[in-house]
Amino acid sequence: MRTLKFLLQKEFRQIFRDKAIIRIIFIMPVIQLLILPLAADYEMKNIKLSVVDHDHSEYSRQLISKITASGYFLLNDYSSSFDKSMNEIEHDRSDLIMEIPANFEKDLVKQDEAKIFVAVNAINGVKGNLGGAYLRTIIQNYNTEVRTEWVQLPRFSPETQIEVTSSNWFNPLMNYKYFMVPGILVILLTMVGANLTAINIVKEKEIGTIEQINVTPVKKYHFILGKLIPFWVLGLVVLTMGLTVARVAYGIIPTGSFFTIYVFAAVYLLAILGLGLLISTYSVNQQQSMLLSFFLMMIFVLLGGLYTSIDSMPEWAQWITKFNPVSYFVNVMRMVVLKGSNLADISKDLLIMGGFAVVLNGWAILSYRKRS
Amino acid sequence: MSTDKVITAEQLTKRFGDFTAVDHISFEVQKGEIFGFLGANGAGKTTAMRMLCGLSLPTSGKATVAGFDVYKENEKIKKNIGYMSQKFSLYDDLTVKENMRFYGGIYGMSDKQIKDKTVFILKHLHLESEGNKLVKSLPLGWKQKLAFSVAIFHEPEIVFLDEPTGGVDPVTRREFWNMIYQAAADGITIFVTTHYMDEAEYCNRVSIMVDGRIDALDTPSQLKKTYEATSMDEVFLKLARKAVRNAD
To answer: What percent of chain A has pLDDT over 90?
Structure first.
């Protein structure tokens, strides 16, 4: 115990003496939490639309003004030549082309049907897809309006219509910040935990002090605990700051209890610190450990269910996410914050995370050798 | 514990794959002796030393340090030795006092012992006013002397020094050797590797390693006689020229 006291004292002294590390630990997460959720906006706005109008009728103008009034689209150009609009897309000045054929109004009124052509710039697939979908919805609405205007009696309606109404549970306004902020907090915690631990130990390897420790009677588990405990504490501090930012800046107050979040975070941090430890035992210098953790972090983030829903991934990718600790914490965070889940609801995730912690730390301890 | 032999090595060998870094070396070191461990770069000195310190597991052969077996009792050995590696081994971002407190603490010294010893060493090194300075702010010569003081802070039986005076000016080297003599007089056995042949003259006995083997082991004066040389430099050159292994 006394040995551990000396190790911890030394570690905390070094951490608090390194101004750069302190900045990374305490300021970066706050800044990132303030910036990232605002940028990672899933609602597409400012979709640049090119309209090719061959009809120039009252109906076509009505449709266009309806689209621009929706607030999602910016009318980039209004022309009567498809090639000209295509040119806009080729120069990336436009995301969508809507071509209104000649006789649009006539067909709509006389034949009860009209065709509109929509071309999507799919270089930014997400934007293109969402833009196309928004546009379709608006056109459909417009269609309904026109129909009710012309077909006065419902029984003359040539087809029955099914209207789908939906309500969003747990996040009624579909405020994307409610699920992005907790997720981003998880990523930040992961980066602080894994990277800092790995770099810290590898730094001792580089300057040779680890060898000095290895010739002392310090026990392996003392040394590892001396490294884990400080970063575990720091991780919980970062979490606290993150939750504070979420509350102050975004008004996010977990529906569930803070206790549940902290219990899971405590176990999660153990797993992540174990990962950092493992990275450090396989790296000789700081570059190697940085690259390794960067590589892992990319996979963790992209397959973590933060930006893309895990349910929509192919089955093999879903299997990979089962080995990704981040995906569990992102899920648990959202469950607790949005749905108000309690410890019993997340017990399975908690158990799995405990397994991660045991395996990663065990592996790291086994591969850390005082003697080569 | 056996009489006054603090280190014994018998046919001690370390192989890395096909490469035999240390090739069946045998020697003994007496208590209180200054034992010089010489050899060209890549001769296997550091590897041999690392095996004795419990940092590296021998491939074959026997060895004891402070009466403990290097295979099974390496953690017991560690309580009884000090070690100063080629790389500078103090924490740059801790102060002089904090380094002493840390190393004293992990060797299980009490707060009182640590405090007394710190005062004593700082006074001895005339560094009283530098105690609260960060180690990185000190000049190299002071750092080396400090590293040595920290290596013997817990008063070990044996201290292993791996090229302790590399890159240090002649005056500081001289002072460093005075510290070594002082430690030896206090009963600490010194096991030191070096490239400087004038330093070899300061040792009680010297072994010279060539290509992983010990080719000569005797007092400096006896070695000069055997090899009909006027200085240790000449002895070393005569022996080291036979080396086939390239320097690292």
So the answer is: 26
Which architecture, in CATH terms, is B32-56+74-240? 3-Layer(aba) Sandwich (3.40)
Q: Is B89 on the interface with A (CB under 8 A)?
A: yes
pLDDT digits (tens, 9 = 90+) for B139-193: 888 888 999 999 999 999 999 999 888 888 889 899 999 999 999 999 999 999 9
> Which chain B residue is nearest to residue A222, measuring alpha carbons?
B106
- Chain A environment of B102 (Cβ under 8 Å): 6, 9-10
What chain A residue is nearest to B70 in terms of C-alpha separation?
A: A371
In a shared domain, residues A269 and A311: yes
The CATH number assigned to the domain holding A79 equals: 3.40.1710.10
Number of domains making up chain A: 2
Q: Is residue A33 part of a domain?
A: yes
Q: Considering CB atoms only, which of A5, A18, A209 is closest to B89? A: A209
Q: Where are the domains of chain B?
A: 32-56+74-240
Determine the Cα–Cα distance for residues A179 and A164; give it in Å rounded to an integer.
25
Decide if pLDDT at A26 tops 60. Answer: yes
Question: Predicted ipTM?
Answer: 0.87
Alpha-carbon gap: A3 to the closest alpha carbon of chain B (Å): 5
Q: Which amino acid is at B90?
A: L
pLDDT of res. B8? 94
- Nearest-CA distance B85 → chain A (Å): 7
Domain shared by A112 and A16, yes or no: no
CB proximity list for B47: less than 8 A, separation 6 or greater? B14, B21, B22, B56
Position A166 in a domain: no
